[in-house]
Amino acid sequence: MINVSNLHKKFGKVTAIEDISFNANKGEIFGLLGPNGAGKTTTLRIIYGLFRASSGKVLVDGIDVNEAALTVQKKLGVLPDGGNLYTRLTARENIRYFGQLQGLDKQQLQNNIERYCEILGMENIIDRKTAGFSQGERMKVALARAIVHDPEYILLDEPTNGLDVVTTRAVRNLLLTLKSEGKCVIFSSHLMHEVNNLCDRVGIISAGKLTAEGSIPNIIERANTEQLEDAFIHFAYPNNTTDEQTL
Q1: Distance CA 108, CA 80 (A)
Q2: Rounded CA gap, 246 and 106, in Å?
Q3: How far, in Å, CA of 47 to CA of 95, rounded?
Q4: Which residues make Cβ contacts (< 8 Å) with residue 170, sequence separation at least 6?
Q5: d(CA 173, CA 139)
Q6: Cα maximum dimension of the chain
Q7: With 71 labelled, which of 94, 101, 134, 151 sits at a CA distance of 20 to 30 A?
Q8: What residues pair up with 210 in beta bridges, in sequence order?
Q9: Stretch 169-192: mean pLDDT, rounded?
């Protein structure tokens, strides 16, 4: 389990997140939702140890990320916001390099590359250099690279944003496969249709604060709406007028 407890993060005088708390369990997909700039990426970066919280804790299987970051990071697969590929390498070489950094032996690494190549439909690009890849092709490689070591916990920052239909479906199939294998997946998004299709539970962040957390039916019921998009507007923009909510 990932346990996020009372996280605060300040950058100078600016409060990025304030009192964020939630749990994410193995065998489920947890969606971290919110407008751009709400604090989703900051929260994820604290969980995987890139940022240190100003206060609060993140425990992964009971291990404090502040006290044992390397131990926690071995359990994680991370797709950061804006991750880049090595463009002089092929897709396979990009993925293999990260698997070697994770200490996988040659046979296990080869098996994992072939597996994720099949799941993500990368057969036609796996041995091409990544220079000139489309956004969807880059995302497939970045995803495979992030999870090639078969981590227990997967953290993804807006993995389907800007992707075409075929690539979005491939990513969706991958996430559902990981869930079926008992993995814990946390992904940030502001695309409600993808959240509806994937998530067991969600947390909604507004201006750095967690304004709602629970199952999608629970979130919809609490907002007194019929659709997740309307519930998202209700919790993510609590001070908006009716006219602003229809934009």
Answers
A1: 24
A2: 54
A3: 23
A4: 119, 120, 121, 140
A5: 14
A6: 58
A7: 94
A8: 205
A9: 91
